[in-house]
Amino acid sequence: MINYEKLFSKNAIGLKRSEIRELLKVTRIPGIISFAGGLPAPDLFPIEEVKDVTDYILEKEGKIALQYGPTEGDTRLKEELVRHMKDEGIETTVDNILIVSASQQALDLVAKIFLNRKDFVFVEEPTYVGGIQAFNSYGANMVAVKSDKDGILPESLEANIKTLIDKGFSDKLKLIYIIPDFQNPAGITTSEERRKRILDIAERYDLIVIEDTPYRQLRYSGNSITPMITLDNSDRVISLFTFSKIFAPGFRLGWIVGPKELIEKIIMAKQAADLCTSPFTQSITYEYLKRGYLEKQINIIRKDYMEKRDKMLSSLEKFMPKLEGLSWTHPEGGLFLWVNLPEYMDSRELFLKAIDKKVAFVIGEAFHPQAKCKNSFRLNFSYATKENIEEGIKRLANAIKEYEEEIKNKKFGDSVVFP
Amino acid sequence: MINYEKLFSKNAIGLKRSEIRELLKVTRIPGIISFAGGLPAPDLFPIEEVKDVTDYILEKEGKIALQYGPTEGDTRLKEELVRHMKDEGIETTVDNILIVSASQQALDLVAKIFLNRKDFVFVEEPTYVGGIQAFNSYGANMVAVKSDKDGILPESLEANIKTLIDKGFSDKLKLIYIIPDFQNPAGITTSEERRKRILDIAERYDLIVIEDTPYRQLRYSGNSITPMITLDNSDRVISLFTFSKIFAPGFRLGWIVGPKELIEKIIMAKQAADLCTSPFTQSITYEYLKRGYLEKQINIIRKDYMEKRDKMLSSLEKFMPKLEGLSWTHPEGGLFLWVNLPEYMDSRELFLKAIDKKVAFVIGEAFHPQAKCKNSFRLNFSYATKENIEEGIKRLANAIKEYEEEIKNKKFGDSVVFP
Fold first, then answer.
1. Are B137 and B108 spatial neighbours (Cβ–Cβ below 8 Å)?
2. Residue A63: which of B21, B42, B136 has the nearest Cβ?
3. CA A237 – CA A387 distance, rounded (Å)
4. Could you give the CA distance from residue B264 to residue B270 in angstroms, rounded to a whole number?
5. Residue among B1, B7, B175 with most chain A CBs within 10 A, to mutate
6. Residue B363: enclosing H or E segment and its boundaries?
7. β-bridge mates for residue A329, sequence order
């Protein structure tokens, strides 16, 4: 019998199936209301527009759309993105943009060009599960930095950096990974002051900042905050964008904005990784942007998700029991909010009870490189219908109430047995 | 000024832009006849069928095609591939197949799960440039093993392995990378006897065999040879297939066939690398296969490329000067043939002369991990029209004749100065 373990790379041995993605399978039980995945609302997909545009592209330039394309991506699409980026407060050029096979590939390529095994990446606590997977696949050490409602705590970030330098790891400190806008999973937004302080730390300790901002265009309230790449004075920010949340994840399209020298290196890594991103979906997306469909689509999504967010927040307010330590975030955009349970609760136990009541979420541990955050979980509000959001939160509230009762009874029971 | 070099990973420092891909840019000069790229003939793309199928998919299941999909790939597409694989002599199951973003991603993922820095990969001499890039991006040591018209020389492979074991590298020997059918770049096919002997060596020295076979379905003469994965008795072969040459490269779709345990590990690596391959292009391709379009398309391509191969071979016969050491391969399928020049010639010098005459190829060095093969080059016969193939070979023959004259005159000149 062949022993594959002996042949695997060190990084491969560390690869595990994401537990969150395994849990998502449970949520496919019929009748379940799922707040678990991070899926966009399929009812909003602009199917008719995609059909029109695809027919047009195949007629007009089928021979190009079906052929290989340049690793750098379709220049026309990048020109459209230069325009789109301006609306988001980013002045850039075609040469500073690389088209990728969505944000997860961007994370993979960035990890590949910066990380040797055991190098350090500073992440938010909690952070995006796909970031954890990408960095883990290169054997990185991830340091989860304490965060509050305004983002990562700069003093905590700096203290962590200093400790590692003292331990002799200064050559191994590489990346700060931040999801500054309506963070996945916590729904928080990094304030402008924090952004500046993080950049200041990055500059002083010579680190690269990965600004992962898939939801930036989906703000429902409050004021837009300047992107970190725009605040950066020393060419050390790489920003990751995607069409997955504002157009269609099925196209697997995203883009990276960054300093030319870094984009050049990422292009080389991409050439070895997949030659090029689909010219077919790039051509369609170019035409879609050129016709001004994207802005309209973003407005449609914004309106719908804002209503869903409001429905989830009002349902939480209405149905959740009043417990000390039970709270949730109030995101100004994006797809997620974060629930903190009282410390004596375990979101994994609650998950099983919630599944019994036919409602699902993702446990907090999934979003921590060392599987901490035991008494918290993530709720998604983009996928379910508004009616289901109300019903699902009601079920979830009941699960929490029952769990609380059980804990109380157990405590009481315990005190009888061991008086 | 930020010093990125200090922050790059060791693997990233070793990343270089592929020279072949840079040379390809020169070949875009107007009027040039290019035998350089490896592009399929765009005139054969089944644009009408793609349009029909895409419209159908968007109408019928747009909400699924535009959404995220499973990392493993579309099960329906994999079922179609189980059927298709049977025609190619491979009995397999859905669980032994993984859909990937074309063969280059397969190479990247395979490299990722097996290779630590400085691990060894045995490759053919010459070998595929994308394989070199993928293995290089993980810091691998590549050993080019002497090959002849029947493929890699088993005794040379084994001698290389023994030398490395003697040097204490036995733990670092990992992969044998073979393109057995109508190899890119040399156009040769590994004989069944060689396949068996390579597998025997792999088994005795506990190595994994990567069978990369993007052209297998494109045979124009001779008899089909059993795939290595079918000859394998010890679960150590991974076979890579792609839709790029038999359908459309613009879809970026390929598939891996292998032992379940390895497919499982590659799925984990893929999840971290890009979450999933486009459900949109997968749905379209599933429907395309289901309607039986693929077999028809393969027949169309086979007929056209066979005629082009024949045209290139007859033009070479007709126009090339009779020089000792000048020879070329006679591929039974695929997209490429390989020209050996007399030893005193340098294909890089010839390349410049050829460009002057408005004909292009790829120099042999591009296909060697240590840039050897100085007096050889690759010709592609799928992309140019038949008329252009004849004209292009005529120009190439003239370039060689002129180059030969120049060398002779130089020699003569030399002999005058230094009698």
1. yes
2. B42
3. 41
4. 10
5. B7
6. strand B362-363
7. none
Inter-chain contact B45–A62, Cβ cutoff 8 Å? yes
DSSP β-ladder status, A151-152 and A141-148: antiparallel
**Sign of the C-alpha dihedral computed for residues A53, A58, A63 and A67 taken in this order:** positive
Chain B residue numbers with beta carbons less than 8 Å from the beta carbon of A12 are: 112-114, 265, 269
Strands, sheet with A362-363, edge to edge from the N-terminal-most edge strand = A327-328, A336-340, A376-380, A362-363
Ramachandran class of B64: left when φ > 0, alpha when ψ lies in -120 to 50, beta otherwise:
alpha
**Chain B residues lying within 8 Å of A301, measured CB to CB:** none
Dump pLDDT digits (tens) for B314-329: 999 999 999 999 999 9
Mutate to test the interface with A, among B278, B293, B297 (most CBs of A within 10 A): B278
* pTM metric for this prediction: 0.96
Write the CB contacts of A189 (distance below 8 Å, at least 6 apart in sequence).
Answer: A150, A151, A180, A181, A182, A183, A222, A225, A331, A332, A333
Report residue B178: phi and psi, to 5°. -125, 135
Pull the structure tokens for residue B283. Answer: 């749905």
Closest Cα of chain A to B162: distance in Å? Answer: 18
Structure tokens that stand for B378 in this block: 């690759």
- Mean of pLDDT values over A314-340: 98
From the CA of B109, how many Å to the nearest CA of chain A? 8
Mean per-residue pLDDT for A205-228?
Answer: 98
> Looking at this predicted complex, what is its ipTM?
0.96
Q: Do A54 and B59 touch (CB under 8 A)?
A: no
Report the mean per-residue pLDDT for chain A: 95
Q: Quick one: which H or E segment has residue A102?
A: helix A102-114
Q: Is the pLDDT of residue B1 over 90?
A: no
Give the containing element (helix H, strand E) for B122: strand B120-125
Interacting residues of A22 by C-beta distance below 8 A, sequence separation 6+: none
Give residues with Cβ within 8 angstroms of B116, minimum separation 6. Answer: A9, A10, A11, B138, B139, B172
Residue by residue, DSSP assigns A316-342 as HHHHS---TT-EE---SBSSEEEEEPP
Contacts of A106 (CB under 8 A, 6+ apart): A100, A212, A240, A254, A255, A256
Verify whether the Cβ–Cβ distance B136 to A206 is below 8 Å: no
Please indicate whether, in this complex, the C-beta atoms of B281 and A278 are within 8 angstroms of each other: yes
CA distance A358 to B249: 43
DSSP A276: S
Structure token pair of residue A227: 């992107």
Percent of chain B past pLDDT 90, that is, above it, reads: 92
My answer on whether omega of the bond before B185 falls inside 30° of 0, hence cis, is yes
Token readout for A400 is 């929490």
A289 and chain B in contact, CB less than 8 A: no
Distance (Å, whole) CA B236 – CA A3: 10
**Residue B48: CB atoms within 10 Å:** 11
Q: Which residues of A touch B263 (CB under 8 A)?
A: none
Contact assignment for B58 to A55 by CB distance below 8 Å: no
Q: Which domains are delineated in chain A?
A: 4-45+296-417 (3.90.1150.10), 67-293 (3.40.640.10)
User: Chain B residue closest to A22 (CA)?
Assistant: B70
